[in-house]
Amino acid sequence: MKVPQLHVGAGTSSGRSTSSPSGPQPPEASASAPAPHADVAVTEMASGAQVSRLTVTNNGPNPALLLEGELLEGGQQHRTCVRDVVLGPGETRDIDTFCVEAGRWEEGQSSHRRQARRAPLNVRAELTGVSSERGSNRQGRIWERVNRFDNARGASATSSLLQHLDWFKDDKEGSTTARQLWRSGTTAPSAAATSPAPRDG
Predict the structure, then answer these.
(1) What number of helices (H) and strands (E) belong to the chain?
(2) CA angle at residue 107 from 103 to 110, to 5 degrees?
(3) What angle is formed at CA 41 by the lines to CA 98 and CA 161, rounded to 5 degrees?
(4) For residue 128, what pLDDT is reported?
(5) Nearest-angstrom CA–CA distance, 56 and 58
(6) What's the whole-number average pLDDT of the chain?
């Protein structure tokens, strides 16, 4: 596949080093960086669903990017991308994935959604191979890392990483609202409002 001319963004300096973001140069001057609204279809494989593979199709006129660790919601179970994938316009490809929802395998569900979310760093460490834990069973270790959220915050019914991310977002928004009400004198903060609570699933 021919990749368009690369665009190098403004540099950011830290000490003696400077880093600059780079990516495919869009055909127009707009900031059309690969985004969740890009017209990319993500489905289970037509030959039969596999935990470790999904099919992606770029239906748009521009290149599209799926990021390493990007979460693909739905289908027979939630997955995460193993590595960055650049798709040319109209290109279809099977990509490598890992499961982040050990307790669900829902027959008949094929389509996945992209919501601009990525797995936390402790999960992505297994994708990049920087984890100090070595061995071939990376899928098993990813499930173990998701299970740590179950143990720490209360079990998700399907051991779903995405459900834990949703709970964390709800807790964060609830805590912010409680603090704002308290500062305005409307109510006093409670331990339940200001601290994440364990979940029952």
Answers:
(1) 4, 12
(2) 100
(3) 35
(4) 75
(5) 7
(6) 78
Residue 62: C-alpha distances to residues 3, 42, 87, 91, 93 (Å) = 11, 17, 9, 10, 16
| Measured distance between the N- and C-terminal CA atoms of the chain, rounded to whole angstroms | 45
Asked whether 106 and 76 are in contact (CB, 8 A), the reply is yes
pTM of the model: 0.66
- The 10s digit of each residue's pLDDT in 16-26 is 665 555 555 44
Q: Which two tokens stand for residue 123?
A: 């999960």
**What does R_g of the chain's alpha carbons equal in angstroms?**
20
Neighbours of 117 (CB within 10 A): 18
- Report the alpha-carbon angle 190-194-195, nearest 5: 115
Closest CA to 72 of 100, 109, 33: 100
Q: Please determine, for residue 191, whether its predicted confidence score (pLDDT) is greater than 80.
A: no
Does residue 38 contact residue 59 with C-beta atoms inside 8 Å?
A: no
